[in-house]
Design brief:
The protein is an alpha/beta fold. It has 6 domains: 166 residues, FAD/NAD(P)-binding domain; 130 residues, 3-Layer(bba) Sandwich (FAD/NAD(P)-binding domain); 74 residues, Enolase-like, domain 1 (2-Layer Sandwich), CATH 3.30.390; 62 residues, Arc Repressor Mutant, subunit A (Orthogonal Bundle), CATH 1.10.10.1100; 57 residues, no CATH class; 156 residues, Sulfite Reductase Hemoprotein, domain 1. Helix content is 34%, strand content 21%. The chain is built from 28 helices and 36 strands. Strand 28 and strand 29 form a beta hairpin. Helix 11 packs across helix 14. Pathway: Nitrogen metabolism; nitrate reduction (assimilation).
């Protein structure tokens, strides 16, 4: 069936190459496609690696095209398979394992590698780059074993690596040769503001330092600088730059300079072989930013599909980034010289900065820090060499913190060119978004996201997507742009819950049918949400729908990338017994557990359990599940407390264990963590927990809404209580109020900010009757929960279906 179709082989399974394939598919290109990727994953978003490093996202969360996407589009995917060369005479691509693939066209999209400084000691153990998931895993492991780290390089990757390691608890110093961070994207003022913000977040800096040697024996122990000073470090991340990965091209006799040399249609020197992305060199330039890579892919896709296209003439480089929660942008020229006219505004209180550079009154560059609302407009003006006018000045500089009003935003979007990329993570142009709205009648960002991919990664382009919606829909925008919980419905969380109660709906299928879901079966976003709402409303009668849960929850265990599982037994308050430890050790040995790890939540992970062994491991452990996979209470972290600590004023271990026993197994909108400190020294880190409890001489102080993830948030002081009984009532009321008002997957940190601390206090602290009612409702819900493994072990059909027959991806 496929013999008449031309064969395309893509070497490299990254964003640039797969983005090109996506465009070919959208254009209706009739090709038989084979993809080789050296990593053991489908296509993922490399931009989001820092989120994986700091623990707020998993590898699955950053996958752009999952395994099913390749199957659905008839694409043959070889993961974990590196290509060594292309044989132009026989038209074959040859992999290192001997696998070959015939081709009519080849696209080389091998990306780039980390540049490792050629200095003494660079090959020591503990020295890594930061380019892929394997690097993330190495860094995560290092953070568990070592304390001091150094990151060489003050560019984007270096700063992301540094902040990720700080969040993992390491003492991190960024070593940078220049006096300014990100000197290729930011001017001195913006770089100084960025440095100050990162210092507030715990990152240290050694600026103007040239590393000449990495010291230590087999493992690195420090850095030596050209001025003779040294810095202690047990782990070093090299983030000094990237170099195009040209090995395949070299081995195939293709012309290579710094990168793989291509013409204006991305053709290499070998007939029918093309190259896009960081590995390609066009007119002497190699691009390391996402937008140019997608621009290349769009030209190549149209060329291969015979569609009309302008040649690729290079990209006007602009940079729009979010670094540790801080937005920065630059385009064109950003370092002012005497020949520039400078327009600048700096707000130290709001920590924002805006600068525009003119030459002969033409806009030639811009820098933004903190507020990047005007980035799309400024990028267009720089690209056009627009002349500065009073209107443009008023439009861009504005009068408020965001620079102007709503009408200006629509005009800005209207003037964007059709081929301008709105979503840099996924290469989605303005025209693609406009077409999606007009062709499909879309009225929400979620619908656009599902269709085009815009906003599905970092979300930084969401404001521009909303502006495009407003521009296309005009006066109908306000009425039609109401966003539901997903693209399947326009109903909000509160509307769905109200309808379930009013109409007595009892299953997800019933909800979706009665409430008019656009997709009859729903999607992976709304099914688990509706299932949770039903369980929250009807704790005694709702039959949990396993098929509506995420895969880890269905399996009641965490699935690892190699297909094995992590089993996490409960340890109440982080306390265990010698008998339980011996049982864990015996079971781990018997079932060849790969790693037994102490977690940050004070319990033990048994990592690497074979799928078929998981039920037997639970059966022989005979311990409660730690719910490490669930949207429920994960852990109650405790310090030693008054039982043993000379500073302890309260029994933190006893109270922590009591709370964990009381609230375990109950579903919440998102994962839920607690901590109990026996004194204000905060050894159990209560300040970053959903509920943090701190003991003092007079009783307990309760904090809520803390988070240590991608958006770190210090918990708010909620109230003080004198007795354990009062403490339990307050915790119960807060938890149940969160269960009843929180959006699905919304952490308490976001919930507190959305509702406002005053509203939560009013509902709980100022209303004793409602507080007691909330506590009673959570107590009733708690009487309905059971350990999933006790139930599973006595349910042979379910056990066999999940652990003996099912293939997990």
């Amino acid at each position: 069936m496929t013999s008449n179709r031309e064969k395309i082989v893509l070497i490299g399974n990254g964003m640039a190459g797969v983005g090109t394939i996506e465009q070919i598919l959208k254009l209706g290109g009739n090709y038989d496609i084979t993809v080789f990727g050296s990593e053991p994953y489908p296509n993922y978003n490399r931009i989001m690696l820092s989120y994986v490093l700091e623990g707020s996202k998993t590898v699955d969360d950053i996958i752009l095209n999952d395994w099913n996407w390749y199957k659905e589009n008839g694409i043959t995917l070889h993961t974990g398979t590196a290509v060594t060369r292309i044989d132009g005479e026989s038209r074959k691509v040859i992999a290192e394992n001997g696998l070959t693939a015939d081709y009519d066209k080849v696209i080389i999209a091998t990306g780039s590698n980390s540049f490792i400084l050629p200095i003494p000691g660079s090959g020591k153990e503990g020295v890594v780059g930061f380019r892929d998931i394997a690097d993330c895993e190495t860094m995560l492991q290092a953070a568990k074993e070592y304390n001091k780290a150094a990151v060489i390089g003050g560019g984007l990757l270096g700063l992301e690596a540094a902040k990720g390691l700080v969040n993992l608890g390491m003492d991190v110093t960024v070593v940078h040769l220049m006096e300014d961070l990100m000197e290729r994207q930011l001017d001195h003022t913006a770089a100084s503001m960025l440095k100050a913000e990162l210092e507030r977040q715990g990152v240290k800096f050694a600026m103007g330092k040239q590393t000449v040697e990495l010291t230590g024996e087999e493992r690195v122990s420090g850095l030596r600088f050209s001025d003779g000073t040294e810095l202690e470090a047990q782990f070093v991340v090299m983030a000094v730059g990237i170099k195009p990965n040209v090995e395949v091209a070299k081995a195939s006799g293709i012309e290579v300079n710094r990168g793989i040399v291509v013409d204006d249609y991305l053709q290499t020197s070998l007939e029918n072989v093309y190259s896009v992305g960081e590995c390609a060199e066009h007119r002497g330039a190699c691009y390391g930013l996402v937008a140019p890579l997608f621009e290349q892919g769009n030209v190549l896709a149209k060329h291969l599909c015979g569609a009309e296209t302008k040649p690729y003439e290079g990209s006007v480089v602009s940079t729009k980034l979010k670094i540790s929660g801080v937005d920065v942008f630059s385009a064109g020229e950003f370092i002012d010289t005497p020949e520039h006219t400078v327009i600048a505004a700096k707000d130290d209180w709001k920590r924002t900065y805006k600068k525009i550079l003119l030459k002969d009154n033409m806009i030639v560059g811009a820098v933004l820090f903190g507020d990047v609302t005007e980035s799309a407009n400024l990028q267009k003006l720089v690209k056009q060499d627009a002349e500065m006018t009073d209107d443009i000045y008023a439009d861009v500089m504005g009068t408020g913190c965001c620079g102007g009003g709503g009408a200006k935003k629509t005009a800005s979007v209207e003037s964007m060119s059709d081929d301008e990329i709105v979503c840099g993570c996924n290469g989605v142009t303005k025209k693609a978004i406009v077409d999606a709205i007009q062709d499909n009648g879309f009225t929400t960002v979620d619908e656009i996201k599902a269709c085009t991919g815009a906003t599905r990664s970092c979300g930084g382009c969401k404001p521009v997507v909303e502006q495009i919606l407003q521009y296309v829909l005009g006066d109908g925008f306000e009425q039609s742009a109401k966003t539901g919980i997903c693209s399947c419905t326009t109903l909000s969380r509160d509307e769905i819950v109200a309808e379930i109660r009013a109409k007595g709906l009892t299953t997800t299928k019933e909800v979706m049918n009665v409430l008019g879901w656009k997709q009859e079966e729903g999607c992976s976003k709304c099914r688990p949400a509706v299932n949770y709402y039903l369980g929250m409303i009807y704790p005694d009668t709702h039959e949990d729908e396993k098929e509506s849960r995420f895969v880890n929850e269905r399996m009641s265990a965490n699935i690892q990338k190699d297909g094995t599982f992590t089993v996490v037994p409960r340890m109440y308050g982080g306390v265990t017994t010698p008998e339980d430890l011996k049982r864990i050790a015996d079971v781990s040995i018997k079932y060849d557990v790969k790693v037994v790890k102490v977690t940050g939540g004070q319990r033990l992970d048994l990592i690497g359990v074979k799928k078929e062994d998981v039920p037997k491991v639970w059966e022989e452990l005979d311990m409660p599940s730690g719910y490490a996979y669930a949207k429920s209470l994960r852990t109650v972290k405790t310090c030693v407390g008054s039982q043993f600590c000379r500073f302890g004023t309260q029994d933190s271990m006893g109270v922590g264990a009591m709370l964990e026993r009381k609230y375990e197994r109950l579903d919440f909108p998102a994962k839920f963590k607690m901590a109990v400190n026996g004194c204000p020294r905060n050894c159990a880190e209560s300040c970053t927990k959903d509920i943090g409890i701190v003991g003092n001489d007079g009783g307990w102080e309760v904090f809520i809404g803390g988070n240590g993830g991608i958006k770190p948030r210090i918990a708010d002081s909620f109230c003080k209580v004198k007795t354990d009984e009062e403490l339990v009532e307050i915790c119960s009321a807060v938890m149940q109020y969160y269960r009843e008002t929180g959006n699905y997957l919304e952490r308490t940190s976001e919930w507190v900010e959305r509702l406002g601390l005053d509203q939560i206090k009013s509902a709980i602290l100022d209303n004793e009757e409602e507080r007691k009612a909330l506590a009673q409702r959570i107590d009733f819900a708690l009487t309905q929960v059971k350990d999933p493994w006790k139930k599973m072990l006595n349910d042979d059909p379910t056990r066999n279906a999940l652990f003996e027959k099912a293939e997990i991806r």
